[in-house]
Amino acid sequence: LLHFVLESYQKKEFPCLIQQFEEWRENKPLSGIKVFDGAPVFKNTCAKYASLVAAGAELTVGVTDNFFYDKEVYSRLPEFGIKTVKNEYQGGDYDLVLDCAGLHHKKTPVKGFAELTRSGVGVYRNGSLPCLSVDDSRTKLLEDFLGTGDGFLRGLRSCGFEDVAKMSVLVFGFGKVGKGICMRMRQAGASVTAVDDMSRVKSILDIYLIDMNDVSAVTEAVNGADCVVTATGVAGALEGRYPEEIFFRDGLVLANMGVEDEFGGEIDDELVLAGNKPLNFLLDEPTRMNFIDPVMALHNEAAIYLLHNDCEPGLFPTPSELDSKFMEITRRAGEIAEDIKLLDMAMGEWDDKCTD
Length: 356
Prior knowledge:
356 residues, alpha/beta, Rossmann fold, 7-stranded parallel β-sheet, 5-stranded parallel β-sheet, 12 strands
């Protein structure tokens, strides 16, 4: 399986998973443990599976019609001894479930869950089983802030918008993903403005911020934008809040970077790039390996933590010792040192201003 990954990637692109693979191949910490993995299936995700298989796990990979996956890669997983299931939302005999977007929260794993995303934590908050939130970590910022912004830019260019430096971009949502999109688009030369609730979110990196409740200012900003992108993490976030006709202007590019339909039912899916699905999932590699490597390694490591600790039911954040482990490996051996410096600078402002 690792050889399959190395057909497309160099080891230096995923130092966290390589180290994990080498360690786990020796000590087999998941020997005989039944693990279900619901992370999106792409070529780079196979590096994640390689570590779990090396650890001795009896691995099942699940996909659903509600989420994106690479059908060719998925079809090849049985070649590597990995069991695959589709639309198995509940049931299954598992010790651990490594979930994504809360799609498999109805399963009943013996030792609990590890949830990869922010969109999935709600279903686990008051659950009857433990759930480690990978999203509640600094490591996840490497994907959300750096990787997703990069993926949005690549997705936009794949749709034919090469000259982004001439674009005026309006981003709804100034959380981790929204901040990352703003940063990456500004780096590419675009004019960028963000919209959010200014009672709880403050600007960082000198991004101009408009209060979401100021309908007049938002309307003016939409009218002056070339591209409007949603990154709120809230289904129907724009629906009924602003005059719908402002989004139907000829030439206005609409894009969604949320798992849910954030524009709402007033705007037909075909009017939004990628049919209103997250724009980066148009790509063969929605998030580049460099950015997602530490996050996938952390998601795997959560299995070991759950296995060896008696965790209380419900959601809990990533333990600091796990979080720092993969951040340090990425700083030392990864290829995104300059990106991490920008993240550190942004996080300094982020923490000082107590933003989300």
